[in-house]
Amino acid sequence: MENKTVIVTGGSTGIGKATALAFAKNGYNVVISGRNNKAGEEALKEIKETGAEALFVATDVTNELDVVNLISKTKDTFKTIDVFVNNAGIAGATEGFLADSSEQNLRSLFETNVIGVFFGMKHAIKSMQEAGGGSIVNLASIAGLNGIPYAAQYCASKHAVVGLTKAAAVEYATQGIRINAIAPGAIKTDILKSAIESGSYSEETIAAIHPMKRLGTVEDIANGIYYLGSSESPFMTGHVLAVDGGYNAQ
After folding, report:
1. Which of 12, 17, 104, 228 is the one with CA 20 to 30 A from 55?
2. Model pLDDT for residues 217-229, shown as the tens digit of each residue
3. Which residues does the annotation mark as catalytic?
4. Measured between alpha carbons, how far is 64 from 205 in angstroms, rounded to an integer?
């Protein structure tokens, strides 16, 4: 029996790389994509050290032809796509309240966080229809379930991801294609580190909004993504799994 195959967009760093490693350690063939070739090749080496078969494909998820190429190269190498993780995303600029924020920032967020996810879903679904099924996991956020001050535009982009997830899950529920999302709380990633270094936030203030009073790790999220994407959750579709240290329980 051939190993199953997962694609993780934005798989070179942070949550994406941790997710790729989680699937690799569970016997999957792993394909990661990203815009930085050097980071991609470094992550690829680390993934292969687990013994998994792996591939890096340079991809800009805002370019539909790039996404088509990602799908095509994966199928050429591994035949089918069993799991597709739409992880690539950006946080955008912190510009203050909505009336002080820019159109360009909003457009940039939607290009990557929404249009990029749409392209990934669109072409993964087509491939999974041919294969008779599969699983898609989209990266939402607690900002896709709540209103977060100073982040209206980011919230809008992640609410859109939740909408895409739920509607598509219903559309393809009888075709063997499960579509779920994960909503991380604040996670120790390079994006968050940059926000802290810019003076926008401190680690203490971010941790304090979570009942567990700590930031999450990339492994916390990767484990949730693996659960949603794998055969461990066969009766779950259209669900948004909050992995947030209790944030949404408040």
Report:
1. 228
2. 999 999 999 999 9
3. 154
4. 38
